Amino acid sequence: MWGRIIRGGRVAVSEDLPCNLRLIRNMGGGPRTFPGGVNKWQWKRMHEKRARDKQNRLLQQEKQLYEARIRSHIRSTLSPDHQSSAAATHRPLSPHNHVKALADRFMKDGAQDLWNNQDGPLTSPSPSTSPTTTRKINTLPLDLRKIVSQISKRGFSGFGYTRDYRSVSEVNTNNNNTNKRFGAKKRGFWRDDSDGSSSSESECEIGCERVSSVASLGKFDVKRERRAVPKSVEEGREFSEQVELIKYELNKRKLSQIQEEKEGEEQQSVLTQTRFDECGISPLTVKALSSAGYIHMTRVQEASFPICLEGMDALVKAKTGTGKSAAFLLPAIETVLKAMSGNTSHRVPHPIFVLILCPTRELASQITAEAKVLLKYHDAIGVQTLVGGVRFKVDQKRLESDPCQILVATPGRLLDHIENKSGISLRLMGLQMLVLDEADHLLDLGFRKDVEKIVDCLPRQRQSLLFSATIPKEVRRISQLVLKREHKYVDTVGMGCVETPVKVKQSYLIAPQESHFQLVHHVLKEHILQAPDYKVIVFCVSGMVTSLMFHLLREMKMNVREIHSRKPQLYRTRISDEFRESKQLILVSSDVSSRGMNYPDVTLVIQVGIPPDREQYIHRLGRTGREGKEGEGILLISPWEEYFLAEIKDLPLQKLPLPDIDPQGKLKIEHSMAKIDNDIKEAAYHSWLGYYNSIREIGREKTTIAELANRFSESIGLQRPPALFRKTAIKMGLKDIPGIRIRR
Ligand SMILES: Nc1ncnc2c1ncn2[C@@H]1O[C@H](COP(=O)(O)OP(=O)(O)OP(=O)(O)O)[C@@H](O)[C@H]1O
């Protein structure tokens, strides 16, 4: 207060009165009816000035709020996080509405006193008219009212530049009176200057710096404090800088996106950072692992090893080609080492400590080979294979002469040995660990009975491990046949994640059955052109259709081999080994190669006809893109097999357009097909009919299946469909079905 009002109009004037008022008092004259000795008019003018100042202050605050809104708008458009948090906070006015309200206020009649020299032609157009201006504002006079009305009409983003309300404020550092004004800026409009006000939103970003005043108001034009704006805010102040800021922010987002993708890829990558030598594995095994080039664990190995080592039962799911074999072989070796160092081994002569069951002979040989690699420096531990296709007596002799602690077997042959009392049952009494590789397949109808019988002959006190790339729900239930109730479930694929390798490009072709052979030939030719080091597996629906495809491709002068269950074991082993080592080779195969087979660098997998189920599709496809490498898979189906796509709809398959097959190629195929023995074709017809008849969705329509089979028979160049044995026809439910011929 400048003074205390005393009853009767007398005032005790304090020395902190503004000097102009003290002057008025000292001048004397006129009625002293107002505090400070000012007359009525002086009092009125003083109050008007104070009201104007107050209004200017309020206006300044609104301008700052507007600035803050622009900044927050930019931030919210750049950052989705900010956007969501902004949405959650209280927002009284949208930026557009705020500008509009501000503009309305400016345009109101009687608002002239809110305008200053730079604002427009209402008052003096030039700021230089002020006698006390220390620095000329070298901008064009502008009509602020016009601009503001444009803003309010066009809205927030109507201008080609970013509007920026800045003020030039003249601050009297003594009495804190402010006389703020809009400053003219470069690019024709607003002056870039600072303000000394305290918007809460800007304050958090603003620091302090001493600068000289740009406008002057006589003695009020003194050095004043300017809020120094940090770089990030300053960047946003001018249009070009804001563009730069936006560019920078976008780049930052792009970079973080790339980073995220990279992280995703890393996650998808098969190997982890965990080293074998830091996991408590026997040093001799680590040595063998190092010489095989294994330094870091794969994800499935890292996830399952500690559980397996603890002795817990486990059901483990991991994508194809991610190192499941080593994931169970390493704990198996540790189990043997532990058992050999303990006393338990003495109770049973030549005990088998670990039994590994798998569905095919080739897979058993492959697992044995991998075990031998890991056992390179463990001279005392032996591993043996027990599979069909070898004479029983030979097996027996080998088992006796070369006792082993790890046995890899297919269920059928092992059961033969158990039932024939070859001595293996006794040796299995020392069993500590049972492993089921491709567990879902082994617990499937085809193998389940054998597996159950085998499990019945094994000691109950054992550890059981089940591994597969696919574990359907039913299998999880059935797994209780083998696993303890309190087993662990390890899933490195993840719920809802794609079950196939990410780097394998998957597609499908729908074409009439009759054109399938031509299409396979066409796709192979195209692939060979694109991938000189090609290595292709063509899966067919049955062994005999595999044989027919092989003969046809061989007639077409392609470098091709065949493998299926009708071939002698020695031949199968030779072909399997050859394909493992080779490049520029095509392997036509039945499902004997679909699971577990580790043929390195397969470039393409073609599946001709639908696989028996979704799981088999995944396993066949999994022969390519192993160890996180790239690969390609094509599924070729007939229009009536299209329903199968629903079973794999969650997998990333793309539909391919039907390629044009040149008539010459078509003729060549027909010509080659004509050269193939009728026996092969008839066998192919029978096995084709047997396969599709066994598929529920197709096989239940007997008339349809007979028709489709006849079309297949025609497409492979048979004069008429081969006849079935009566017994077979009855078994298949095809007796008396039109189109099915019965042998007399
Ligand atoms: N830790 C490791 N470091 C490097 N390579 C590894 C490692 N573990 C396994 N491999 C290699 O990864 C390849 C695939 O392994 P494996 O055959 O065990 O896969 P899988 O998961 O059993 O596949 P599938 O489901 O088809 O049976 C093999 O060549 C194997 O040598």
Automatic annotation (TrEMBL):
Keywords: ATP-binding, Helicase, Hydrolase, Nucleotide-binding, RNA-binding
Matching Gene3D superfamilies: P-loop containing nucleotide triphosphate hydrolases
Catalytic activity from the UniProt record: ATP + H2O = ADP + phosphate + H(+)
Domain Helicase ATP-binding: 305-489
SUPFAM superfamilies named in the record: P-loop containing nucleoside triphosphate hydrolases (SSF52540)
Low complexity: compositionally biased ranges: 121-134
Region of interest called Disordered, as start-end residue ranges on this chain: 112-136
Pfam families: DEAD (PF00270), Helicase_C (PF00271)
Motif Q motif positions after renumbering to this chain: 274-302
Signal peptide, first to last residue: none
All residue ranges annotated as the Helicase C-terminal domain in the record: 523-669
Enzyme Commission code(s) on record: 3.6.4.13
Molecular function as annotated in GO: ATP binding; hydrolase activity; RNA binding; RNA helicase activity
SMART domains documented for this protein: DEXDc, HELICc
Annotated ranges, domain DEAD-box RNA helicase Q: 274-302
Domain characteristics, as noted in the entry: The Q motif is unique to and characteristic of the DEAD box family of RNA helicases and controls ATP binding and hydrolysis.
Role this protein plays: RNA helicase.
Entry's family note: Belongs to the DEAD box helicase family.
Name of the protein: ATP-dependent RNA helicase
Organism: Clitoria ternatea
